[in-house]
């Protein structure tokens, strides 16, 4: 995976060249550190829905997902009933996969339990931040994502395999996987150097 030169003459990760929406996501979100529980949970949910699909499909429907799932407010989703499941299965604006729908509702309930135990989702996930890589490499899992996946599954979470968790870690800034030639690589490294990790 290399880079491409945008119209502004900036080098960017090549994966975001497909659409302007990808480029905006890359420039404004991907890899920037996040410690907001709602945003962390939203990303976990969307990664679960992405399983077997492209991120482009999910990104194009993200606003629909937010509307359908009460903006991914954990407390609200944890109280969803079978009536909500049926509502969501009928919603053409999202991915109407009943297994994934029931999984993220279950995960909201598990998230409440994890927050009660750890204080926040951010406190839990940032504990697994790995050391910065010495060399750039393209991977889909890591020892940390495998361990998180193992622990979450033991707690009863669903659709949280190691690949799903690694994508979550990339997006939420736990790892900085921007290409070394991407203009954001050094910028995010600098942000992370000053970033106060959740305690």
Q: How would you portray this structure in words?
A:
- By secondary structure, the chain is mainly alpha-helical.
- It has a single domain (36-178), classed as Endonuclease III, domain 1.
- The protein contains 11 helices and 2 strands.
- Strands 1-2 form a two-stranded antiparallel sheet.
- A hairpin with a 5-residue loop joins strand 1 and strand 2.
- Helix 2 runs antiparallel to helix 7.
- The radius of gyration is 17 Å and the shape is globular.
- The model has no long low-confidence stretch (mean pLDDT 96).
Kindly report the CATH topology.
Endonuclease III, domain 1
SS-based class: mainly alpha
**DSSP E strands, number:** 2
Give me the CATH architecture, please.
Answer: Orthogonal Bundle
Number of helices: 11
Percent strand equals: under 5%
Q: What is the H/E string?
A: EEHHHHHHHHHHH
> Distance N terminus to C terminus?
34 Å
Radius of gyration: 17 Å
Strand order of the largest sheet: 1-2
- How many domains make up the 3D coordinates? 1
The major pleated sheet works out as:
2 strands, antiparallel
Classify the oligomer.
single chain
Which CATH first-tier class would you pick? Mainly Alpha
**Rounded mean pLDDT score:** 96
